[in-house]
Design goal:
6% of the residues lie in helices and 45% in strands. The chain has a 6-stranded antiparallel sheet with strand order 4-3-2-1-6-5, covered by helices on one side. It starts with 5 loop residues before the first strand and ends in a 14-residue tail after the last helix. Strand 5 and strand 6 form a beta hairpin. The protein is mostly beta strands.
Length: 115
Amino acid sequence: PVVGCIVVMSNYKKDTQKPDGSGHVTFLYAIDGNNLVCLGGNQGDRLKFSNYKRNGVNFNFSKNGSIYQQKFNCFLMPIDYPEALYNYNIPKLTADEANKKHFLNLETEENEQTF
């Protein structure tokens, strides 16, 4: 993934690994160790930087009596994205640091739940 790309995540039923048609969309902003730090708009009804595990399985959650996992589906960028930015160094910053830098004054969980 590159800075600013759209990160698409899908929710999968854990026992069958089949997607249920729901998920989350966010924008890649930085990297913090094993997390992607992304900017999203509906975490707690606000704009917020959040952590998502780089290994692709972000968390397990219960919905309608079943256990689901949220996983990366794809990373999207515009067709005319500048080639010079492909190897641009992704900033190393925590979600809390990003929230403070942009005056959001919010604390983030280790890995946010968004569904």
